[in-house]
Amino acid sequence: MPITVLVVDDQELMRMGLKMVLGAHPDIEVIGEAANGAAAVTTAAELRPDVVLMDVRMPVVDGVVATTRIVEAGHGSRVLVMTTFDLDEHALGALRAGASGFLLKDTPPEDLVSAIRSVAAGDAVVSPKVTKRLLDRLIAENPARTRDPGVLDVLTAREREVLEQIAAGRSNAEIAEQLYLSEATVKTHVGRVLTKLGLRDRVQAVVLAYETGLVRPGG
Prior knowledge:
Blueprint: E1 3-8, H1 12-23, E2 28-34, H2 37-47, E3 51-55, H3 63-73, E4 78-83, H4 89-97, E5 101-104, H5 109-120, H6 128-141, H7 157-167, H8 172-179, H9 183-197, H10 202-211
């Protein structure tokens, strides 16, 4: 079955361009579109797409609020946010709201397609370097938003190392190289980290790593 996608953007030209790019791939099907966050929430509930490709700055209801409502609805759609600015507070809010990742709008088409496939598969390694910069800024500007580091006590020493690597924005292949492990072993460790900590995906893992102080801004 193809990956079903809902395209959300207030600019019709952007929606048309995204549909053209995605429509060129047989494993991806755009099943709907919306021009604002309110319409996105309603349409996502009706169509239940695998991935919602979400703009953040829109009229009526913005992408952050829409992301929150879609995630809380619990119908399984994963949100991939698109933003114009790599240091966009709206993107920070979307991550906290439950987005599975985000991309810049000038992302090459092949990277967009790869990101949608990754998010649909349950991964969230999307623009990791941008993610890291945003989280650096988030923690630096909101130092009071911390978590008890004791929540990480359920992890083994190796799993903590893997979590540190995830927080650095590294892919499984890069983690394998850094820790001298096979990719299959890294994938197993990543799965255990997420399960033990009750996390949905790698983006949540990165946020938790920062909030517990396992990694520090700029570190």
